Amino acid sequence: MGSFVSLRSATREDATELALLTDIASHGFASWLWLAELGNGGADTPMERGRQKLRADQWQGSWSDAVIAAAYGEVAGAAIGYGLGEGIRNIEADRPALKPVIDLQKMVVGSWFIETLGVYRHLRGIGIGRRLLEDQIERAENAPVSLITAGYNEAALSLYRKSGFSEAARADAVAFFENGRKHEWVLLTRDAR
């Protein structure tokens, strides 16, 4: 399964698709973060701000760390991953909702961190996410692999566990909307090959 999926390195021109898929993968968390950055000027909407960030060259997690999956003649999904360096230890959350996520990341310094793995809903369940995950594991080479997902995301948890990941830690998520779903962030890790 998944042989109909082609993967390619993302280009700067993929930033719009990457912003959409990052927001889908984060269940709206990304666009909420981008909304808070609108006061800095240069963007009119959270998605436009996300696109700007993903087009940038100056930080990890932008287009240069991304892989695009294509299927049936369209972009189907994307993954963004990179080596998580010591610099994460110096980052302090500027919003309460970010603190548990950053705290979990600080636990896996030195791992290949999958920041985003998202597939458009109409193309889920046919092996695209698995193919993107396999590619990220390959990119990690000899490093352990880590990622964070929402505790209620059973489909993602199942995929990750079937791919050799195990739960390393949990942290209570801080709701970013007043009526937001209460959940935990789950840190999953996979030993080096």
TrEMBL record:
Keywords: Transferase. Residues 5-193 form the N-acetyltransferase domain. PROSITE patterns: GNAT. The keyword DNA repair does not apply. One of its GO terms (molecular function) is acyltransferase activity, transferring groups other than amino-acyl groups. It holds the Pfam family Acetyltransf_1. This is GCN5-related N-acetyltransferase. It comes from Rhizobium mesoamericanum STM3625. The lineage of its organism: Bacteria, Pseudomonadati, Pseudomonadota, Alphaproteobacteria, Hyphomicrobiales.
